[in-house]
Write a structure and sequence with these properties.
By secondary structure, this protein is α+β, with helices and mostly antiparallel strands. Helices cover about 45% and strands about 15% of the residues. It folds into two domains: about 5-150, no CATH class; about 160-310, Up-down Bundle (Four Helix Bundle (Hemerythrin (Met), subunit A)), CATH 1.20.120. The radius of gyration is 24 Å and the shape is globular.
Length: about 300
Amino acid sequence: MEKEKVIADFLQNHPLYSKVEIDKYFFHPMRFYDQTFQFYCPNEDSIQTFKLVLEPEKVIEETGGMASDRKDTLDSHMEDGSIKFIYHYSGQRQYCKKYKANFLINVFSDGPIPGLSIYNSFQMTGGRGGKQSETKVQLPDHRLFIRKIGQFPPFEIKPDKEIISFFKETDREFYTKALICLSQSFGVAAYAYLRRITENEILRIVESLCEIQSQESEKIKTLYKKYQSNNQMNNLIEGIYQHLPSGLKSLGTNPLKILYSHFSEGLHSEDEETCLQKAFALDTILKFTIKKINEEKYELKHIRAALKNLGH
């Protein structure tokens, strides 16, 4: 994922206190200036494009923006060469600038990152940021992270209607609890809930694949009937891959195998951060799988209706 997309995804989708590794390009507060991302706008009741601005905006402009890279303002380096800063940014709706979302962002490194200078890798453009030049700095292996420590309007828990309607009633409750845990960065609990949902729903996913009514779905039905007689889930999951719809196979790996492998794992001694990362990943793959199945059903239904109207 490109460095800008990581920041966009972080602003839109990550709850408070979750930690995300970012490119060292963002070692300075002004590097976030003018980054765009998608966010909900209540004025339009829809997702719109927003642009990130360092607050207070007037003060930043009056001090010369990029020229404020001095020891007394916007300094990001600690005495030992590590990076650490907390700043208030607003996300302004790009089209009209009438609505703002606010973020208190903490950026920090896990060790010294010497040699970073905003002047030898960043073009000066009148205080509004710019593009990276050809100058490159060789950096050590220490990493840079970003964390939200404040957000208004607050991070909302909005289960995807398409996903929640797919689940059984009990799993709908589990899914809402999983999202609540994600919103509070409770990784172990979120991961446990999502594993339970996956365990409960994976056969429903296979049953939905059988309902697509295609040549491949007939082969999936045969594998499913075999599973019903021997209960060998591994064989079902392995055998089904070559018969999946192209949308699911586009991943280049078997999403059902990935889902199944995680619900059969124990939590063991995984820490909160690791479980939180796994929970986000598991949720993403689960949603992708369900949506691709629904898309396939929808497309085939309408194509068959069109063919019928043409006398075929």
